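REQUEST ID: PR-0412
SUBMITTED BY: lab tech R.K.
PRIORITY: routine
TASK: structure prediction, single protein chain
INPUT:
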Amino acid sequence: MAGATIKADYYEVLSVTKTASDGELKTAYRKLAMQYHPDRNPGDTFAEDKFKECSEAYSVLSDPQKRAAYDRFGHAGVGGASGGGSGFPGGFSGDPQDLGDIFGDIFGEMFNMGGSRKQTRQQRGRDLRYDMSLEFEESVFGKEQEITVKRLETCLDCKGSGTASGKPPATCSQCRGAGQVRFQQGFFSVARTCPKCDGTGVQVTDPCPTCRGESRVQKEHTINVKVPAGVEDGTRIRYQGEGEAGKFDGPSGDLYVMLSVNAHKVFTRDGDDLHCVVPVSYTQAALGAELEIATLDGPAVLKVPDGTQSGRTFKLKSKGVPHLNSSGKGDLIVEVRVQTPTKLTKQQKDLLKQLGETMEKENTPHSHGLMDRVREMFS
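STATUS: complete
OUTPUT:
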């Protein structure tokens, strides 16, 4: 007939030989069905046609009688394969339960058809977060503080059962304890979470008046937080089991205390080292001096040698931050900056002029400009 479509060979559709075993057919079909299934290729008509084609091929070749007829007479021997009334692409005349088994095995993971998926009634409690602000010194030396958090705790009246009598809840009347309900959708037998019990298989018929069947009530809880010495901004401290209580006596969540450290007016931190800037006068830098400076551990002496240039750094060992959960401390890095006097008396100006005259030849600062450096490169 003009315009008639030539159907592809079923064995070629599944990419198997004519001697393929039932297991080989099933494996080949599983691979193709997973690849071309419409749920994985929404709106793709090519994939939809390929899915129908391989499903039709498998429906014939997986049936011993149809396969024998197809091997002997070709498509003419299975004329009903292209128009069954079961909703299966390619037709299926066998037991619908057999069809469900086929698709349950192949698409078990995709459509949750691999058997009962009853959920546990117990649920883990939520994790909680508490934000704690620390002064800079508190982060260095540590701190101990009580905090109060609001959380859901197990109801004492029903002991977490959710029922007024304290007895276990009744079996769900809709799913009869399975946690799932099944319904037929075309050629699929689809299982869904029971809407009445949320997949737990049970329901509370006499809820506890205190928690209203939820098994938990909200309360304030006080906990003693110990901040170790040496923590940094953004450090997280975990308190296991101090979060919300689990639903229906499930495991409790955790409490996370998030630390934020305020900036210091003098010191900045780099790892476990501290940095600060100490101003010195021109005479102190030129003649040298011993300066008393502040550290987080108290006063310390900084020895500035004569001829110190502005910007020079000095290291004071073990005057920094304690190593977290370890012994030892970082260092304090001190940068000295020479301050130029802005208000001078006439006498001070005269003295500086005299000093400048004596230093004019041997101590005149000189800085090479760009052209000087270029000339040096080519000289």
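NOTES: The longest strand covers residues 143-154.
REVIEWED BY: pending
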